[in-house]
Amino acid sequence: MLFRRTPTHDVVTIGDAVLDTFLQLEDASLQCQLKREECLLCMKFGEKLPLKSITRIPGAGNASNVAIGASRLGWKSAIVSILGQDAIGHEIVHRWKEERVNTRYVEHDEKHLTNAHTVLDFQDERTILVYHQPRAYHLPALKSTSWVYYTSLGKGHETLEKALLSWLEAHPETRLAFNPGTYQLQRGLKKLLPVLEHCSVLFVNKQEAQRLLNTEELDERLLLAGLRRQGPQTVVITDGAQGAWCLDGTERLFCKAFPGKAIERTGAGDSFAMGFIHGLQETGSLSEALRHGGAVSSQVILKVGPHAGLPSRAALQKILHTQSKLQPKKI
After folding, report:
1. Does some domain include residue 4?
2. How many CB atoms lie within 10 A of CB 191?
3. Which of 104, 196, 197, 223 could crosslink 209 through cysteines, CB 3.0-4.6 Å?
4. Which pTM does this prediction carry?
5. Are 264 and 300 in contact (CB under 8 A)?
6. R_g over Cα of the chain
7. Dihedral, CA atoms, 82, 87, 93, 95, nearest 10 degrees?
8. How far apart are CA 218 and CA 174, in angstroms?
């Protein structure tokens, strides 16, 4: 359904925001099995370990990354989030305003601090130490929007989620994109079914797909089909440097990752999702949505942190033109 008048926002993102502190490790090693995703990051216990660098990123977190990425592409974005009434919280709001992200739905918690994560950066991958402050989540009165992007929240988010589903029922013109975070995944597939049934697009990585379906299945085609049976109109599965797969009612496609040497991968999935829904909204093509997602994420992994590499609309179009031969294929 199309809006009869221009919506207030192109996308409203919902999720926790954080200060990310990146620690680039120097003295560490990997112990790996055949599968890279099963590698263990090893450091000497009880030692003082040297770092190559320390980088602070205010306004990280899935919802914030998508809101900033949308704004860079020229969309009107807003974020629903709760911050502490502290210096970091106000620093994050300042960052959003610099990035032209609307902060009308941002609240400050007088009792608890702003979330802060530590990111261990080693050999182009990252391990994130995550802690969510306790929050009393609720949904503010949203204005009209083309998309809602619902993602990672801490414990006790179910009240907000129930209100969001009611709001979506009353606003069928709004499309829902869902990228479940740690606490949402912990609830399991059955409890997430009401959200999945409202989904226009579900975004997960391969390990998250396996977890939701409680399977060790490796075939992406079967994972796509298994998730789509749960209700989403479109399912997207990303797998880092391997590329991305998607399935809707008529097409099943795979797109290779866009070329580029990865420096650090934090925010790659968020930027892919933002590029995907931007491409889907702008072109109506599943194939172009995959290309937009791949193009945006290919720039993010070239820099440390989730924001530095986010492209403008003009830069995105240039990448798509340069890589015009990189096209999704049917699988």
Report:
1. no
2. 12
3. 223
4. 0.91
5. no
6. 19
7. -130
8. 33
One-letter amino acid for residue 219 of the chain? D
Residue 277 structural domain: 9-42+49-330
Query: Is residue 185 one of the residues assigned to a domain?
Result: yes
225 conformational bin, left if phi > 0, alpha if psi -120 to 50, beta if neither: alpha
> Would you say residue 155 lies in a domain?
yes
Indicate whether 3 belongs to any domain: no
Distance CA 330, CA 327 (A): 10
Would you write out the chain's pLDDT as a tens digit for each of its 331 residues? 454 568 999 999 999 999 988 888 776 665 665 455 568 878 777 778 787 888 899 999 999 999 999 999 999 999 999 999 999 999 999 999 999 999 999 999 999 999 998 888 777 677 888 778 899 999 999 999 999 999 999 999 999 999 999 999 999 999 999 999 999 999 999 999 999 999 999 999 999 999 999 999 999 999 999 999 999 999 999 999 999 999 998 999 999 999 988 888 889 999 999 999 999 999 999 999 999 999 999 999 999 889 999 999 999 999 999 999 999 999 9
* CA dist., res. 167 & res. 185, Å (int): 22
Q: What is the DSSP letter of 36?
A: G
Token duo for residue 303: 């820099």
Paired tokens of 7: 């919506």
Buried b (16+ CB within 10 A) or exposed e, 295-310: bbbbbbbebbbbbebb
Query: d(Cα 102, Cα 104) in Å, to the nearest integer?
Result: 6
**For residue 234, what is the domain's CATH number?**
3.40.1190.20
Q: Rounded distance, CA 125 to CA 28, Å?
A: 13
Domain count, the chain: 1
